[in-house]
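Input (structure):
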């Protein structure tokens, strides 16, 4: 090494050594007040030093935890420049952050976290002819792909987090995804970068010829200094870069210094891609777009095990696939856990390869798949295979693969599994041998995990049941990581094949690259960041891989009320379900989760953000006032308790339950919000109003008195107080029963037995149907009787307790539910099923009952509860519903989506001749008491206006609008004026027309 290079290496080591303790000491050596004033004065975006914001950004999807000094959410590029200037003045480290889905710990840090994902989301220019796009760092990948799609183009790299990862984050990690087989990594698709150095230098970098390098290096500017240093670095290490870097596409670990070589175009932008925020801040990028195949087919091949599937990969790659993905039976089994409902058929085998082929049309794509199958021989021949062309089937198969990171955060045995050695990669022709040796390594260490991944590029994802809770477990973690890194290096691989090094793997880089190349990495960083203030501890001078772990915390708050049976009764363990993969941060897309985030785009309003806040409350370092925390309360404030996360989250986080738990403790012994007394106690007020419904309606509808009542009850002035029916359903029912006495079921109120062929069924008289819309349960009685059942009701007033649960009044809810159990005990013991008409009440009997009053009796009741459609499918599959012959659009209630599913309803609608479009609209926005509360009206409306309300307005006048949920019907009618029906009402109307022999008008 010459003297210049030696000096550079010494400077690099000195610079990084000065900051070696920065993560631990940074916040103690900074003029925090001065820094706060500088940021607040210069940024138009938001800046927060508060406990709540800092708690939100302590973690990403990795095993690590760092408490930041502050968080900035810039609105403009100038905001980023100003934030970096303030950091430079006060010596504050910077961690750039995109979607926060890093599994390596490279999007958290001790200084200023700069989150570009909320506002810097613009696509500044898209040039279809040049096939390029110029993007801001916060652009969501799916948004870029949607903008390119009308031109027949796409952005090639597509990690499984495509619905929420940002281009800036992808550039930071050199993200890849399933289709890198065809289109390469992010680095392969970056043309140029607009970057900002910590010293304030701003420059645009891209491919640079040798002549241009010399010209720029001669400039007496910071840009000239950087080009000169890069030219010298490349010359010094040229032989090492040509022979010492693993030569395969998924070498993501370390710095891609070989991109600086002349044969690679001297591409500075691609060398900076994958530096994980440790060198520069990316202000913008020009990226390459590729042709999107008009049609695709998925070839699914079954093999006896994953290593044998891996052995087939080299032959498959010769057929030009778009992707080759691998999964095994244990990953598929994870989809059979509660709430997952996969229903995916696979060929024979215990491991599968999903090989996607493209074509000009579906037939050409399918033909390519069939050609591939005919050409396979030897080890590549599967036990069984299928060519899948049905879009719904392909989406279901992709869902297994894309949700792997969440699905595998618990092992099949139920123990917690963690990232760490999450995404190592080896050349594809070594993958089979590597997997066999890796399995042996797992057995030697007594570890378990579910492996899957990008087999076509030799990249394996796995979460492992490391034990972080004690020193011995952490020592075992380190020993495993070191041995696994050596194994990867022995196969010519990379300890990271996708997610970057971060804190998880930076310490392992010498095992892969050796000391000389690691020294080159240090010199490269020093060129850009000589003070080591950009994401310190990442790649160069790394933090130990077993430090700063999110060690499971013991809950110091009072014992919880809910049982958390799937988490061994441990609230902290329930919170750790959230692995941080961020599916709840989608701004668009199918499913329900997370309606508040879709509207606000704020981290605190995502399921992940709320889980992080609650975890930090349990941890007690940042959030120090436990259940009384106002920061946690504020984060939960916009949670609609929709339960969408219970099914849409890959690990079934149930934020509605966590919110109820928190509110119970937070307001225990304190005055609650007015809405908790008004809407939380709705069942009681409804029963009182039933004594004089006309007077209650008159008072509620009076201009001044009604407004005063709404203010007193915390009700939004824009909402009308629902009118109580002149008579309740239960009164109508019992009068009818007395007029037509029949057989009884012990403890239940009877009705006549005319036409009974199938036995008794309990119809659950929920508060909404009983007091506000009795026409719904009346219609259900007629439908059930037409199907041959004898309808009975529980004796006395009953309630599922939901309004008390959702407002955190769990003591009252438990009392109510115990009364419900007594009322249903005899019927359930006699084997009589229960039908619920209000989805939220039905779901409460299915889930909340077991959580609040655990025991065998609750489980029997929960198992006995059905929706109307589900009951008819299970107990009267041969019943022919009336033929309605109507067009309809339908809104699925969130709780039904999350707990029960809608398949039976779709089937019943089809059999009844209802040409129904079931909207994929997510939550309606009303969500019980949420949308009635004065402070939530705007968010409630915005949630509904995303998809549901525009769809209803656009529907033809003669199209039926169906919604089984009282909240859904109320929201639709309030905002559109369209009458909205329960499915029972539509079927009952069909019975009338059938009896009268007339068609639907």
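Output (sequence):
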């Amino acid at each position: 090494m010459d003297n210049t290079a030696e000096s550079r290496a010494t400077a690099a080591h000195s610079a990084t050594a000065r900051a070696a303790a920065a993560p631990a000491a940074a916040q103690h050596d900074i003029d925090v007040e001065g820094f706060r004033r500088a940021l607040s004065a210069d940024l138009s975006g938001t800046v927060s030093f508060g406990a709540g914001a800092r708690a939100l950004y302590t973690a990403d999807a990795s095993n690590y935890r760092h408490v930041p000094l502050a968080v900035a959410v810039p609105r403009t590029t100038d905001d980023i420049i100003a934030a970096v200037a303030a950091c430079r003045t006060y010596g504050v480290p910077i961690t750039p952050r995109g979607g926060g889905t890093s599994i390596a710990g490279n999007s958290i840090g001790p200084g200023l976290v700069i989150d570009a994902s909320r506002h810097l989301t613009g696509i500044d220019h898209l040039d279809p002819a040049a096939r390029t796009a110029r993007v801001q760092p916060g652009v969501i990948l799916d948004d870029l792909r949607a903008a390119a799609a009308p031109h027949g183009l796409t952005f090639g790299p597509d990690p499984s987090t495509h619905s929420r990862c940002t281009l800036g984050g992808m550039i930071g990690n050199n993200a890849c995804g399933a289709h890198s087989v065809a289109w390469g990594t992010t680095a392969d698709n970056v043309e140029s970068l607009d970057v900002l150095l910590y010293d304030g230098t701003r420059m645009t970098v891209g491919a640079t010829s040798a002549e241009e390098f010399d010209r720029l290096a001669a400039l007496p500017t910071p840009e000239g200094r950087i080009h000169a240093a890069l030219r010298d670095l490349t010359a010094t290490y040229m032989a090492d870069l040509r022979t010492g870097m693993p030569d395969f596409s998924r070498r993501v670990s370390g710095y891609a210094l070989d991109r600086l070589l002349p044969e690679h175009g001297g591409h500075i932008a691609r060398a900076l891609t994958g530096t994980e925020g440790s060198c520069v801040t990316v202000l913008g990028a020009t990226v390459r777009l590729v042709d999107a195949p008009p049609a695709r087919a998925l070839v699914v091949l079954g093999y006896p095990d994953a290593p044998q599937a891996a052995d087939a990969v080299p032959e498959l790659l010769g057929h030009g696939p778009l992707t080759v993905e691998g999964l095994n039976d244990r990953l598929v089994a994870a989809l059979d856990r509660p709430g997952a409902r996969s229903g995916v058929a696979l060929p024979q085998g215990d491991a599968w390869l999903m090989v996607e082929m493209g074509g000009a049309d579906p037939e050409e794509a399918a033909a390519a798949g069939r050609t591939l199958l005919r050409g396979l021989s030897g080890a590549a021949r599967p036990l069984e295979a299928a060519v899948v062309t049905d879009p719904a089937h392909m989406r279901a198969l992709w869902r297994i693969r894309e949700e792997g990171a969440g699905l595998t955060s618990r092992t099949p045995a139920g123990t917690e599994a963690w990232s760490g050695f999450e995404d190592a990669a080896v050349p594809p022709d070594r993958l089979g041998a590597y997997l066999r040796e890796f399995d042996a390594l797992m057995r030697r260490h007594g570890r378990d995990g579910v492996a899957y991944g990008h087999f076509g590029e030799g990249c394996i994802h796995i979460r492992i049941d490391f034990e972080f809770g004690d020193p011995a477990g952490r020592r075992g973690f380190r020993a495993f990581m070191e041995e696994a890194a050596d194994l990867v290096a022995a196969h010519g691989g990379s300890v990271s094949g996708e997610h970057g090094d971060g804190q998880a793997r930076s310490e392992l880089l010498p095992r892969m690259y050796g000391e000389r190349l690691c020294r080159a990495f240090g010199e490269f960083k020093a060129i850009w960041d000589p003070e080591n203030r950009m994401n310190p501890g990442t790649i160069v001078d790394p933090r130990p891989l077993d430090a700063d772990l999110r060690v499971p915390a013991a809950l110091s708050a009072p014992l919880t009320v809910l049982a958390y049976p799937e988490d061994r009764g441990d609230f902290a363990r329930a919170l750790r379900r959230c692995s941080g993969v961020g599916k709840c941060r989608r701004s668009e897309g199918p499913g329900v989760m997370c309606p508040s985030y879709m509207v606000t785009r704020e981290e605190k309003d995502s399921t992940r953000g709320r889980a992080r806040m609650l975890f930090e409350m349990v941890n007690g370092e940042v959030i120090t006032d436990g259940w009384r925390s106002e920061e946690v309360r504020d984060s939960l404030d916009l949670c609609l308790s929709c339960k969408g996360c219970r099914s849409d989250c890959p690990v079934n986080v149930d934020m509605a339950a966590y919110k109820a738990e928190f509110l119970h403790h937070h307001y225990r012994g304190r005055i609650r919000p007015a809405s908790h007394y008004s809407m939380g106690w709705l069942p009681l007020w409804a029963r009182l109003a039933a004594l004089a419904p006309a007077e209650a309606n008159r008072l509620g509808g009076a201009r001044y008195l009604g407004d005063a009542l709404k203010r007193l009850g915390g009700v939004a002035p824009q909402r009308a107080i629902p009118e109580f029916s002149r008579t309740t359903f239960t009164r109508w029912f019992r009068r009818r029963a007395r007029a037509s006495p029949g057989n009884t079921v012990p403890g239940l109120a009877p009705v006549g037995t005319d036409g009974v062929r199938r036995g008794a069924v309990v119809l659950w008289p929920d508060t909404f149907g009983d007091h506000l819309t009795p026409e719904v349960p009346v219609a259900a009685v007629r439908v059930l009787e037409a199907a041959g059942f004898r309808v009975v009701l529980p004796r006395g007033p009953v309630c599922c307790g939901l309004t008390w649960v959702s407002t955190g009044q769990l003591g009252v809810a438990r009392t109510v539910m115990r009364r419900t159990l007594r009322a249903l005990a005899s019927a359930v013991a006699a084997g009589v099923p229960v039908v619920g008409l209000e989805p939220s009440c039905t779901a409460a009997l299915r889930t909340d009952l077991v959580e609040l009053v655990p025991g065998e009796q609750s489980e029997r009741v929960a198992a006995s509860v059905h929706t109307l459609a589900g009951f008819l499918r299970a107990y009267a599959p041969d019943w022919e519903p009336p033929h309605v012959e109507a067009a309809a659009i339908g809104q699925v209630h969130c709780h039904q989506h999350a707990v029960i599913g809608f398949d039976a309803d779709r089937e019943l609608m089809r059999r009844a001749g209802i040409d129904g479009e079931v909207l994929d609209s997510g939550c309606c926005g009303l969500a019980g008491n949420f949308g009635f509360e004065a402070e939530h009206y705007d968010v409630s409306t915005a949630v509904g206006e995303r998809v549901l309300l525009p769809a209803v307005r656009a529907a033809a006048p003669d199209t039926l609008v169906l919604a089984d949920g009282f909240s859904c019907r109320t929201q639709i009618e309030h905002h559109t004026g369209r009458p909205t029906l329960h499915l029972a009402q539509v079927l009952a109307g069909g019975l009338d027309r059938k009896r009268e022999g007339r068609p639907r008008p």
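Notes: The two ends are 90 Å apart (CA to CA). Residues 471-490 form the longest helix (20 residues).
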